[in-house]
Amino acid sequence: MATTILKVEGMSCQHCVKAVTGAVGELEGVSGVSVDLEAKTVTVDHDPEKAPIEKIKFEIDDQGYDVVE
Known about the structure:
This protein is α+β, with helices and mostly antiparallel strands. 32% of the residues lie in helices and 35% in strands. The chain has helices spanning 14-25, 53-62, and strands at residues 2-9, 30-36, 41-46, 66-68. Strand 2 (30-36) and strand 3 (41-46) form a beta hairpin. The longest helix has 12 residues, at 14-25.
């Protein structure tokens, strides 16, 4: 398992938290997702083989938020 912290722009409320945690949390290989609105980060516990970081970034982008490199 790996823990990845992503900087994400555009999240501002509990709806944003639910959208991101719901989408990313449904991915196979993801065991945990937490969002910190103040820090603008998403922390993901995942199996890199089943849930590669590119797939996680895609799901966040798909919800309308911007993953900042």
